[in-house]
Amino acid sequence: MSPTPDEIRIREALERIQTPAYDIAGAVREQRARRGRRMPLRSPRRLVSAVLAAALLTVTAAAVFQVSVGWKTIFGQDVVIPDELAIPLQKGATMNGCTLTVEDAIVTRTGVALIYSFRYADGSPLSNPIHFETVSLLTDGTDTAYSSRGQSIFTDSRDAVQYFYQEFSLAEDPGDRDLTLTIGPASSMETSEVLTASLDLAAVYQAHPIAFPTDQQDAYRTSAYLEQDTSSVPLPQAWESSEVQFAGVGFMGDELCLALITPPYDLYQGVSCDIVSLLDTRTGKIIDNTGSGTYPLEGEDSEIREARFQGLTVDDLPYLQPQIIYTRSVPLTQKPWEVSFRAKSAQTYSRALSLDLSDGSHIDHLFLSPLGIRIEGTRPASLDEDGGLDRAPHIAVILQDNSIIGASVSECGLSMEESSARETFEVTYVYQAGTDSRRFLSVSDVTGIRIGDTTISIAE
């Protein structure tokens, strides 16, 4: 079913909110479900009263097994993964009515990638996205690694399973060693309906006008909001959310700024709130926010959450009503799951280089694994706000059959000594399948890497 225009608006508004990301599709699908009926909470059971020991599973990789459907769920139907790379684990355990299954693993000499899934033991639909407080990997019972990259897809509140992908970077080869994955506790992220607040924004602003300079510090912004008297300004409530308050109204150039005082966004506890749009009562149209900001309140367990709307003026204030969405976390388990396994590690490739590029970059190291490519080097220093992603060298991968596939930048790390004219960079790429999906590769399938205009031969 295609999303409605209203669902698209909700999705885009939430994506503009600068908070730790959870799958926006969950919020959108929740709105669809609520239009027909109100989703009951899995409370009052709350699923947290029972105290269970973590379930410890020891599994051995099977020789042949079809790869998990989770790969296609997360990366799309075009994902490419060789059968010999994905090690089938397919082992699960249930606690508090929740079943976690570690489905597949890719083990390399420098990292581990995993597909795992969550479902309710009774097969009931997942009304909301699921999150885990901790995901870590223990090697030989001592060295703990935390996930360096992960993602999940919550597609529909009628689905009975949610899949997750996680990567771990390791300092030593994990092959044929005892690996223990720890996941949890689990919680469900719920979102309220979009609530419209009938506020007199003009009265709040006229009582104490605020004009933010574009280069002000965060402390100035928070103190300015706190000077506005908003203690008696009511907000529509969802659940037990009395700690959420309206913070104020201001302008920064041609942007209208509206703010809430709310507990920090937390995937695992408490209630939080965001302004996602405005209702223009003159036209009935919805105005989506064009930006956002979060500003901690010193000494308090709360923060100012701001939404910005471009192109509005003081004259518009009497006709605007903020629209807000509450989020909260409902604990599902008190203890984490633990899954142990062993597997041989797949081949990787590492090579020292001395390659100069036309933009002044110098690449001194190339690393390949089934999960992607990493290059390291130096380049002229820059003050790029995007972390240097737009300056990452273009890379293509040449395969044994002479076909060429792309590689897209996933991470870019920068460091620079004070007063230095050059910065050190480390760029990580993932292999592409088509334009929108991901590929995983056996290193033996690669014959060359093209960096800019130079092709590096990959020797056996």
TrEMBL record:
Protein name: DUF4179 domain-containing protein
UniProt KW keywords: Membrane, Transmembrane, Transmembrane helix
Highest taxon above the source species: Bacteria
Transmembrane segment boundaries: 47-71
Species, as recorded: Agathobaculum faecis
